[in-house]
What we know:
Oligomer: single chain
Strand content: 15-25%
Strand order of the largest sheet: 2-1-3-4
Largest sheet: 4 strands, mixed
Number of helices: 3
Helix content: 40-55%
Number of strands: 4
Amino acid sequence: MTQLTVYATDWCPFCFRLLTGLNREGIEFEMVDIEADEDAAEIVEGINGGNRTVPTVVFADGTAMTNPPLAQVQGKLSRLSVS
């Protein structure tokens, strides 16, 4: 099971930046395109008060971050691996 799901679109520059950073750092994740998956879009809307804000990152513990910088995602993953 992946520790990280990134809800994104293929046109979003913020998504591109985060996904590029995750790949560069060798962090495994599942990317879900909310424009191709209506259920995923509804998940993002539920997290973000009805907005389809991407990237939205959901961690294995069920917590989420909206448009986080790579360092914030890395910090959360470090804390999860210690728990």
